[in-house]
Amino acid sequence: MSMRRLIAAALLPLALTAAACGGQATQEAQTTPAPGTSATPESFGENSLVIYSGRNENLIAPLIDKLKAATGVDVQVRYGDSAELAAQILEEGDRTRADLYFSQDAGALGALSKAGLLAPLPQPLLDRVPEKYRGADGTWVGVSGRARVIAYDPRQVKDAPKSVFDLTDPKYKGKVGWAPTNASFQSFVTALREVSGEDKARKWLTDMKANDTQTFAKNGDILNALDEGKISAGLINHYYWFEKVAEKGEAAVPSKLAFPQAGDPGSLVNVAGVAVLKASKRAEVAQKATDFLLAAEAQKYFSDDTKEYPLIEGVPTAAGLPALDSIKGPDLDLGKLDSLDQTLTLLKEVGLV
Amino acid sequence: MRLEVDGVSKAFGGTRVLDDVSLVVDDGELAAVLGPSGCGKTTLLRIVAGFESADAGSVAVGGADITSLPPERRRIGIVPQEAALFPHLTVRRNVGFGLPRGAASAERARECLDLVGLSGFGDRMPHELSGGQQQRVALARALAPGPGVVLLDEPFNALDRSLRVSVRDDVRDALKRAGATAVLVTHDQEEAMSMADTVAVMREGRIVQKDEPASVYAAPRDLGVATFVGEAVILPASAAGGVASCVLGALPYAAGGSEGQGRVAVRPEQFVLTVPGGGTVGRVERVEFFGHDAALTVVLDGERDGEGVVIRARTRGDAGHRTGDRVGVEVEGSVLFFVS
Amino acid sequence: MARTVTSSSARGTRLGRPLRRVPRVLLVPAVLTALISLLPVAYLVVRASGGGIETVVETIWRARTWELTVASLGLAAAVTLLSIFVGVSLAWLVVRTDLPGRRVFGVLAALPLAVPSYVAAYIWIAAFPGLTGFTGSVLVLTLVSYPYVYLPVAAALARIDPAMEEVALSLGRGRMSVVLRQLRPSAAAGALLVAMYALGEFGAVSIMRFDVFTTQIYTSYRASFDRTPAAVLGLLLVVVTFVIVVAESRSRGRAAYATRGAPPRRRRVVALRPAGKAAALVWSGAVAAAAVGFPFAGICYWLLEGASSGVRPDRLLAAFGATVGMAAAGALVSTALAVPVGVIAARYRSRTASVLEQASYVGHALPGIVVALSLVFFAVRYAYPLYQRWPMLVLAYAVLFLPAAVGAVRASVLQSPPVLEEVARSLGRGPFAVMRQVTLPLALPGVTAGAALVFLTAMKELPATLLLRPTGMDTLATRLWTETGSGAYGAAAPYAAVLMLVAAVPGFVLGRRSTKEDT
């Protein structure tokens, strides 16, 4: 490293600040990349679409390719954690670069909706999915569903648990795994609160904690512990099990899935969904993409490849899964799952997060 | 160029380090600032060089006020204690550091290396030189840009004693040949006296006396200066009419005409040891033999009120005194007298 | 060349004592650096105040907040103390004893820097599922972060004159009494980095299922989309960091100014007795096995195990290129930003100097997501053309990893006597020219080592990279995140392996440097 180079590097931050000071960023600046600053070919042309995706690239990238092929739209995807991307969009406000936000769960969509950052979707698009799987204000729509399940170890548990309330039984002491910081779990607790009431939800959490329920960071970790025989049951999403079977083979996954009985909050079906940003200048293109995600090709992809539930009528669910409308789940408006604040307060009070 | 320091004061956190210091060094003069450690002499040097700013007062070189100039614009060369050559540069590039790039500068650097007697060392790295050579390179480096003034900060401290004298001569020669105005800061009176044209004695943040070395030695302003610039035997005395009376008898004194109770200072070399006779007599207590001369510690007989007075005298090395010898003590020349 | 080197006291009167007034050429860029590193704090203040005083008070007084503060401080304290123990003991064995194979151990001791904490945590927990909570977190964080202590301490040991130890022995005192005293500044500087790292760490502790302060911050963002409590907690973390930084700079005291003069020419080595030698071998071997061998073996296991590992070489290559490019740019920019602050910290003694240095440290314990969001906040408002472009990511790396670079600059500048700079000034060079021609060339080896440290840390960075990278760009760490996120550990393994191998290169260089000065 020569001195000259070091000095040149020393000037870079000055340049950055200069850019920052003069950065009353204009519309041209948005469409014209600053010279020499782009590491990858990027374009923010009229017809290209920027998606912030909280869904994993491995799961979604093939679908995005189909989207490109089907619509001829140039799509740029920014992958990240759903909630972190939501936080990013909240910071970006009306200067967001996102046209479409693809969230892992309804909660993050609800938060952006509440912040007034989402544009309403056309009614015909919304109407393609059942009412319970879309935003009440029409600003977001679910594209695929996932069910909360109780994964259990048939080697240790003879009868599959039928309800999350079974898990407070002393025979499960220290043998249940959950992931209290996981968003899906928190959605489930929100559902529990909505369905069973605050007191019952609190009691269940307290009882579970008293029953020495094991805390994990992720659903996948719960499943691993389960397959290793460390625990005998765990609260996860249904597709983790299918993914693991695909990765390791069925022999390596001794656990089984139980879909709790009708009405049990433990069988909540949450959705991954999309929303068009109010600040987007390509709202039409974004709606075109939403249309694609809610059409047969994409819905079949969810069913076949990510083992999720398709949400439009006429697309069959994956083999081995009970039909979506057979899961009677809690009677609940998913829109209320954005009351995560209260859930979190409850979890904090109980001492779980 | 002429250096003028006028009324400079400096305090660090309430401690006064320099108190109204004024010093003039003429063009081409080599002045020594001599003082014990902590007297403020290095602070003075740092203020002249521009590394420290004075609380009050001014510094001028060649008539131009440089008080508020940063160090790099003062044209003042410095030779620090440990040479402080740039370890990553060759000797040639060290010497040429203060010069603009170009052929003329290369020539000038060569010239300066010649001046300190190190031509041919240009391609060496500093760590390949001896301490004395490093110090000479440091001087060449300071002289190369043709500074108005060169400051030397205890430049020989880090050198072996045997080396010191010869490097001292080399440095003085080089400074003189370059016609440089120079200030040497030191606590070593021998160094100051032997090298400098003038000596400024500093004490507790003030310059007490500035004069030629011989004058400072022969006519110090006070007892402190007298003892700092050279060894002396101090004895109580009373003076009247150009004669100071003490245990050694009535001694003529040169300084200033003041009279009354006080003390005399007698230089060791003023003592003449004789065969015991009518004058003061003592016993040789100790002989320190240096070869060319010797220092004798003599305890005077306590005839009068001089009970157990001890003097140190210098004699030729071949004088042949031994411990226990009885000797007469006489004083040659005028002594120094200070009213107390 | 026998020379007596006198060390000058801080208030001494020799040439080359610490200066007071910072020249503008240093001050302006240093202030700029401080402002840049305070961006996250400014953002937190904006966000915290947005929620109103009640939210702030309520967040602070929540019992859980204090519980987690205690947990975080406990974790940081344990990791720091253990890192000091491991780092100092290895450094001493490698630099000062006749430990067999000490050069190899010297390199191995630095290599854990190449292991991302989340990978280490995952591998440990996969092998020992019981290793959760406090113990596991302390173990993993210590194993990945002790090199921050080892490297500066090994460098300091190489400089300290063994004569001092001999004097101590001759006075009937233990050898260690002198050694430890002299190592204090360098050990404290390293310990500071470790402590801040442990406070801000999220990935590994969440895998270890140990709830700390950062867990709460993440939860606040992730689950409730509520930025006010997160910001309040972030500010609390800043306060804690500030206290630690000030404590460290107090402990540093004046000792930092005593490292004057040339390094000792000979290095005398302590001959270990057979029993001691065996114990030393076991200890060094055990640390190397746990901190380096185990994670690398784990990755190899992943590589062999993965059924889904259909890795695409083009993606791997692209991620590799982006990782190296971004990390290198990050290292360059942090170093450039660190130079003025580090030089000031080494050479000047004033309120301004210490404020500037501390400012560059204060945001360092903040988790990556906070730093990333703060840059989102400012970039969107004031530097929109740069938003989601690589300079923003580079800037994030600089903010995150500045302290390592500042520490390296400070330490290496301290090693060259300041009188050289004064001589250069007197020869007509302005402060900037002096820095360019004297200070930096002399400090270059140390500064480069600091840049290497930032480089390999930045390579492993994930949370800020995710939020700030240009759309479509992947680094090895983000690919690793994607693959593990979908449960494809087999497919993740090649990325983890390449990441660790690439990071091992600067790790190797740093480790070798620690034993190089033997000859």
UniProtKB/TrEMBL annotation, chain B:
Pfam families: ABC_tran, TOBE_2
Protein name, as recorded: ABC-type quaternary amine transporter
Domain ABC transporter: 3-229
Gene Ontology terms: cellular component: ATP-binding cassette (ABC) transporter complex
EC numbers, comma separated: 7.6.2.9
UniProt GO MF annotations: ABC-type ferric iron transporter activity; ABC-type quaternary ammonium compound transporting activity; ATP binding; ATP hydrolysis activity
Keywords in alphabetical order: ATP-binding, Cell membrane, Ion transport, Iron, Iron transport, Membrane, Nucleotide-binding, Transport
SUPFAM superfamilies given in the database record: MOP-like, P-loop containing nucleoside triphosphate hydrolases
Automatic annotation (TrEMBL), chain C:
Transmembrane annotation, as ranges: 25-46, 66-93, 105-125, 131-151, 186-208, 228-247, 278-304, 316-344, 365-384, 390-409, 438-459, 488-510
GO cellular component: plasma membrane
GO biological process entries: transmembrane transport
UniProt membrane topology term: Multi-pass membrane protein
Presence of keyword Acetylation: no
Top-level taxon in the UniProt lineage: Bacteria
Signal peptide start-end: none
Ranges of residues in domain ABC transmembrane type-1: 69-248, 320-510
Subcellular location: Cell inner membrane; Cell membrane
Record keywords: Cell inner membrane, Cell membrane, Membrane, Transmembrane, Transmembrane helix, Transport
Family named by the database record: Belongs to the binding-protein-dependent transport system permease family.
Protein name: ABC transporter permease
Lineage summary: Bacteria, Bacillati, Actinomycetota, Actinomycetes, Streptosporangiales
